[in-house]
Design a protein that fits this description.
- Belongs to the RNR ribonuclease family. DIS3L2 subfamily.
- This is DIS3-like exonuclease 2.
- Mg(2+) binds at residues 281, 290.
- The protein is an alpha+beta fold.
- Helix 10 packs across helix 11 and helix 11 packs across helix 15 (604-616).
- The radius of gyration is 28 Å and the shape is globular.
């Protein structure tokens, strides 16, 4: 499912502040001036007492730092440059003072932002359109430094200085002065040797009287542009723990290997080992969280089961293993590797639902009609033995050839007690029921915003990209997704019923109203008949209003991207903290209650949900959780999920940059996604990547002019003719315009540009 990004707002009260708060009140008295003092660049932070009182009076607001911050009630607060951000970095939870209206300014709001690896919104100020009056604010306190304060970048030698200048790759991070003692021994004498060496630096201090932070070099990564140094830099910047698990953690794992299920544990569970149960996953998956079963009953209905790895059996509350899992909160998937939440003995062996092996599970079993109506429901701890590990390709082949007799050679090893035909029929039955459930979900008002996902084929030895392709989301994927959703919804209802003040659920707030209104106005002007009044109406619009030709899917991709921008992020929360039940709702799924239950090997939130479920069924220990603890962990899971998603994106961008360098230049058609006054954004159709093209850098362009009516923006490009006796050729650029581009590697490591190709002259 698509996860929607947005600001993560959290409230604080006077009780929040303590001696451990990020900013010491002593900061208030620093750099007050006096003889010989430096000029103050930044305002000193308020004290915690002043902030607490200001929040109570409504004079201050707490938000998550970005260039433009959107308030819960729809107001934008613009932090105008580095001084207004007052040493806060992207992601930090800050307290902002909104300036009086006479100090507000007319500032640009980016319509579409498709920048390179690091996107500094400040740099967009001179480039973007849609000028809107925004509240202007300044950061007066940092509540929580969520940014790691680590950055990758390059060293620059400064003659006659006792320090070197560290220039981060991410322009949102300030330049950092680092002691020469931290630098390589021959850096001062041979700085040119290190021009392309990538380092990690950590900010240690940033005083009020300097534009530059102070820091220490943490590590020399290696050559910029190489995959492993760049990957380690990404992980470190985003504070992803990729260290080996400690002996203390490993001591929590079973010692007697090979491990078998204890007889006393077997007695407590429903024995499903003789049932036809199987997994469907990507071909390369090692952490198999979920399995499915579907048995036809004499009355024509089905007994359908979702069986999830019982990770909570192995991860006991409050031990070292639980502690590290809760801190990591999620596995992080990169193109070439996975940073696991749990030790590999668990995630790839003891918990993974590997075929032909007895495994502990939590099962949800329904009696269900062929149309998808649930007649009964059972939750419980169980034991299964998966009869085969199917890939999505295997399952897709079975769906596409319902009458075919598959041979043993066409499939992975199969338990001989279950004929291949039995497994094939179960897949077909699951597919049929899933189609009905899916149709009911969308007719009932659900929304899915699919965006193109780039996948890579890697050289097995070097792990370098050999090829890339847009991942195809097929019926086999939809089958699995449908039953995971069904299990998650059923579990959410069950644990909320049992623990109304303690359940960990997942909510998805509706999109930001102001941005929806602006998008509706733009679509109206573009002649796009789209209904943004609800999730269901939007889904119907996206699937019915974009024509019927070879570029229909491209137009849908562009419009999907436009519709994703107003969407907020789905969030974990504790039901005892969010008081109004209406706010529990999941907007995109259009269900009142939702949670995550189906991926406990890779998500810590699911482990908490499993513990709640076990306690509700009296087949687990008494819960020692409080509302505050669940909410704190939910908030941490939200943060780490956001980080995991960003790291995954950066890994994909890294590999695609290498692919362009090694295999480019690459030609493709592209479709315009958004138009600014001096540039435009395109979706490169062959590869599903988004790039910005700057008019001033287009070779062969004589001039360009920008025209805007309402929300609709157009550029007219005037091409210099090859034959000077002929008139210049004009090209209109607006949303949905098709253009030809070539992707070429830039001089900078891992960077590439989309170069606009000249249009053919009219004959």
């Amino acid at each position: 499912m698509t996860d929607f990004d947005g600001s993560n707002h959290r409230d604080i009260s006077s009780s929040f502040f303590s001696a451990s708060t990020t900013n010491s009140p002593a900061d208030k008295s620093k750099n007050k001036g006096g003889k010989g003092s430096k000029k103050q660049v930044f305002e000193s932070y308020m004290t915690s007492e002043e902030v607490s009182q200001g929040l109570k009076r409504g004079e201050l607001i707490q938000v998550q730092c970005n260039c433009i911050i959107t308030q819960l009630h729809g107001r934008d607060i613009f932090l105008d440059g580095i001084v207004s951000r007052n040493r806060a970095l992207n992601g930090d939870v800050v307290v902002v003072q909104v300036l009086p209206p006479e100090q507000w300014k007319r500032t640009p709001r980016p319509d579409v932002i498709v920048e390179d690896r690091y996107n500094d919104r400040d740099e967009l100020v001179s480039k973007v359109q849609n000028i809107a009056l925004s509240d202007k604010g300044t950061v007066v306190y940092i509540v929580e430094k969520k940014h790691s304060r680590a950055a990758t970048g390059f060293l620059k030698f400064l003659p006659d200085k006792p320090f070197a200048m560290f220039a981060p790759v991410d322009h949102r991070v300030p330049r950092i002065n680092v002691p020469l003692a931290d630098c390589p021994l021959d850096f001062s004498s041979r700085p040119g040797d290190y021009i392309s060496t990538l380092f990690i630096c950590r900010i240690t201090n940033w005083s009020t009287d300097s534009n530059f932070a102070e820091g220490r070099l943490a590590k020399t990564l290696g050559q910029a542009g190489e995959i492993e140094p760049e990957t380690e830099g990404i992980l470190t910047e985003y504070d992803v723990d990729f260290s080996e698990f400690s002996d203390e953690v490993l001591d929590c794992l079973p010692k007697n290997l090979p491990w078998t299920i204890p007889p006393e544990e077997m007695k407590k569970r429903r024995d499903l080992r003789k049932e036809c149960i199987f997994t469907i996953d990507p071909a390369t998956a090692r952490d198999l969280d979920d399995a499915l079963s579907c048995k036809q009953l004499p009355d024509g209905n089905f007994e359908l089961g979702v069986h999830i790895a019982d990770v909570s059996y192995f991860v006991e509350e409050d031990n070292s293993l639980d502690s590290i899992a809760s801190r990591r909160a999620t596995s992080v998937y990169m193109v070439q590797k996975v940073i696991p939440m749990l030790p590999r003995l668990l995630c790839e062996e003891l918990c993974s639902l590997n075929p032909l092996t007895d495994r502990l599970t939590f099962s949800v079993i329904w009696k269900i009609t062929p149309e998808g109506k649930i007649l009964s429901e059972w939750f419980g701890r169980s034991v299964i033995c998966s009869c085969v590990k199917l890939s999505y390709d295997h399952a897709q082949s079975m769906i596409e050839a319902p009458d075919k007799m598959f041979s043993a050679e066409e499939l992975p090893p199969v338990d001989p007690t279950h004929p291949i035909d039995e497994i094939h029929q179960a897949v077909l039955n699951l597919h049929s029921i899933a189609k009905n459930l899916r149709a009911q979900r969308f007719s009932g008002g659900a929304l899915r915003l699919d965006q193109l996902k780039l996948s890579f084929t890697l050289d097995k030895e070097t792990m370098m990209p050999q090829g890339c392709y847009v991942y195809q989301y097929r019926d086999s994927n939809k089958l699995v997704e449908e039953f995971m959703l069904l299990a998650n919804i059923a579990t959410a209802n069950h644990i909320y019923r049992k623990f109304p003040g303690l359940a960990l659920l997942r909510r998805h707030p509706p999109p930001k109203a102001k941005m929806v209104d602006e998008l509706q106005e733009l679509c109206d002007q573009l002649g796009i008949d789209i209904d943004l009044s609800s999730a269901g109406a939007l889904h119907k619009s996206l699937n019915t209003t974009l024509g019927d030709d070879e570029y229909t899917s491209a137009r849908k991709e562009v419009l999907t991207h436009m519709c994703s921008r107003p969407m907020q992020m789905a969030l974990y929360f504790c039901t005892g903290v969010v008081k109004e039940e209406q706010q529990f709702k999941h907007y995109a799924l259009n269900v009142p209650l939702y949670t995550h239950f189906t991926s406990p090997i890779r998500r810590y939130a699911d482990i908490i949900v499993h513990r709640l479920l076990a306690s509700s069924l009296s087949c687990g220990p008494h819960l020692g959780l409080s509302t505050e603890e669940v909410e704190k962990q939910a908030s941490h899971c939200n943060d780490r999920k956001t980080v995991s998603k960003r790291v995954q994106e950066l890994s994909s961008e890294l590999f695609f940059g290498v692919f362009v360098k090694e295999c480019g230049p690459l030609d493709s058609e592209a479709m315009v996604m958004g138009v600014l006054d001096q540039s435009f954004d395109v979706l490169v159709l062959r590869y599903g990547v988004q790039k910005r093209i700057y008019c001033k850098s287009v070779s062969g362009l004589d001039s360009f002019r920008h025209h805007k009516v309402g929300k609709k923006s157009e550029l007219t490009l005037v091409w210099t003719p090859d034959d000077l006796e002929k008139a210049p050729v004009e090209q209109i650029i607006s949303v949905f315009t098709l253009v030809d581009v070539q992707l070429r590697a830039d001089g900078a490591p891992m960077k590439y540009s989309a170069v606009l190709k000249r249009i053919a002259p009219l004959i």
